[in-house]
Design goal:
The complex is a heterodimer of chains A (321) and B (575). With 321 residues, chain A is mainly beta. Chain A is 12% helix and 45% strand. Chain A folds into two domains: 64 residues, no CATH class; 204 residues, Beta Barrel (Porin), CATH 2.40.160. In chain A, β9 and β10 form a beta hairpin. In chain B, the strands form six sheets. In chain B, strands 11-10-13-18-15-16 form a six-stranded mixed β-sheet. In chain B, strands 22-21-24-29-26-27 form a six-stranded mixed β-sheet, with no helix packed on it. In chain B, strands 1-4-9-8-6 form a five-stranded mixed β-sheet, with no helix packed on it. Classes of the chains: A mainly beta (321), B mainly beta (575).
Chain lengths: 321, 575
Amino acid sequence: MRLQRISAIALALGSCAPTMLLAQSADMEGMPGMSMQHAEHGVPADPHAVHHAVTEPARSDQAHDGMDHTGHDMSSIDTAALPPNDHVPPSPPQHVMPAMTAEQMHKLMQMNDASVTGMLLIDRLERSRSTSGDYATSWEAEGWLGNPIDRLWVKTEGERGSDGTEGRVAALWSHAWTSFWDAQLGARQDFGQGPNRQWAAFGVQGLAPYWFETQATFYAGEQGRTALRLEASYELLFTQRLVLEPKLELNFYDKDDPQRGVSSGLSDLETGLRLRYEFSRKFAPYVGVNWTRRYGDAQAPGAPMFHARETTWVAGVRWWL
Amino acid sequence: MSKQVPRGFQLPRRRFVQGLALGGVAAGLGLWRGNALAQIATPRAELRGNHFELEIGELPVDFTGRKRIATVVNGQLPAPLLRWRQGDTVTLRVRNRLRETSSIHWHGIVLPADMDGVPGLSFDGIPPGGEYVYRFTVNQAGTYWYHSHSRFQEQTGLYGPIVIEPRDGERHPAERDYVVLLNDWTDLDPETIYANLKKQGGYYNVGKRTVGDFLRDAGRDGLSGALAERRMWNQMRMDPTDLADVSSVAYTYLVNGQTPAANWTGLFDAGEKIRLRFINGSSMTFFDVRIPGLKMTVVAADGQAIEPVSVDEFRIGTAETYDVIVQPSADRAWTIFAQSMDRTGYARATLAPRIGMTADVPLIDPRPLLSMGDMMGAMDHGSMGHDMSGMDMMAMPGMAMSMHHEPAPSLKTGPEVDMRVATPRRNLDDPGVGLRDNGRRVLSYADLHAVDAPISPRIDRELTLRLTGNMERYLWSFDGKRASAAEPLHLHHGERVRVTLVNDTMMTHPIHLHGMWSELEAPDGSFQVRKHTVMVQPAQQLSYRVSADAPGRWAYHCHLLYHMEAGMFREVVVA
């Protein structure tokens, strides 16, 4: 009985202690609702009152006649009257691990939360047919390699049609910047039709509110050329496997570049709808439609013809590793 | 199956989800050609005494029609049941026959730090071909388990039950005593699962919202209602369907190493009291357990006796254990039904008077959605109604932390942290998503009351840790710092600490502190129950007392295996 009473007191004090500690270390003034009612109990309890007085494990047969205590409600007073526990602290280790760096420790643990990983995504590999009857094959792919914060990205996209291949490839250092956004810095090379162009690239890539996958990249090139590229896509699930992906891409340039069919201002706008079926998350064939609108009339004599407006039907596959 | 399972693969998936009737170790060994039903009646391998010889090795198994290599102990999956006696000093010689380092951690057992089995903290691990002799005195009683603490070996099968008989006999004697060990088996290489999650956090989520869901909601709540309900989630880029990182797309759920189709069966005679020792030995799965038609009286949580409480259903977090007593009065079979929290699958077993008898298997409940309270915390004060002053105080950044002169935790987000909860909910009486108001009496932490006094009657120091993560990047951490970037937490030997955890994520995390008990408190600070693993629900704040009486270096982590590997891990030094 005496033991129980001691533990009751110690417990009552123990449960007040945090309030006191808080009161001592925090500025109490203006703290709404801060309760001071326990202040008079704020005498430190004997730390050993309960714990080290215990030698025998608790037996409480008399306290537990039946088992049907549905919905019982125990107040803290009941808790304080509890018999002592039978906990025995462990003895100290006989062998102590030598001091080691976090890296060595994680190696022994076979744990690595900063490991280098990579991914390769072929977002589009498709055959298209325009309404004017032209066939083409086009691609868009990206890969990354790195730790969770810093990664090397490589992106490429392009098209191979009846009048040759054109496209671009970019290599970027990508740094996790905020919860949903990466900052990217690197270079882009345009190839194919007309002279090749090199650009320095700076941009952001990430997930905008409402789940829009978004990229915005600013480019600075030779001869003071600058450009801006905006891209956004969205995934609309019809089922867990049937996914419609609308996509929008805008390219702005500050100067005409007739040899590459580029005009200043909004040079081209491309929007597409692709309906894919995910046989697995990693492999999904799709069909879709693409609309392209090219602005301006900057076109060099002899350069391949381009269509101001073009609708193409596409079929392809998306897969990743 | 629930509506979320795409029609296209329902048939082939059926066998995958339910598994083979004659699967597991026996099928892998080709033993099933004999008396197939005998395996159901055979008691699981059980080792008792105070000297144990354990050998970690590999074994072909077949749970789904595909042969795989499992990590096993003494050729068994799960590993053998170890029966100890309170007060005994046990010696366990563990040999490693794998080609890689291994380890065994005795989960929830209070023992010296060098016996805890965590490579890098307790010892170097057990090298290939090597052995380690564990030796410690068992001063506690109850239901526990053991598992590998090396990379993903726990996921590939290295887990087993521990039952410690109380010195003075069971507090609630029963005629039958069965271990019900739940697990999530995968045919996939765990490294593949981890890599897939790293590339696409929602890889295994097959319950994402569809156009059809939107149309149905719009029909029910009006267009503006459906849009309003989605607005906050979409602005925050949070997914209310994100209930489990890994679903039955990858998992087949097992009871005692048996698939739902194989149907592990425990025998009883009508009127007998049966003690069921539930252990969640899975890597990533929360199970909601019930036995339709039977009331379960929960008598112990994490091995520790509690005031008996009678319920219809309970959620068991990864690494938790519950002892329940049931008393089937009729001469019929009863189904033990343990559905995964994300409602994509279930583990199943049967209690029956005779082998071969079965009962109906209930349908899986509809897949729930996370609520706004799971994201915002105490915005809805539905079940709180008390202690609001305390909540306001605790939610004030810097308040608790000022105690030990550490910088106040900012509520900023960043690459490691995709959300924060400014006003966490503190009530313990919420059974969690999918169990709220389901018409059944569901256990919550508010129902757990220890039968004995806490180890820590006083509190010397307060320590607040926030559970943080970024689902899109699949990064998990304490206080926004992954294990590789974090300093150890230092506790003074002998001090009593109140640890307050605030969950700034949308997932439930079972947090496990090695070496010392976590003595859970009610929102008013009174002692509730002694646990080794504490589930913290989304946007919840809870506190427990830790008596730092175990000198040494200890692990402290989320017991979701891939969360731990992704950084939700800290070293705790008691010195």
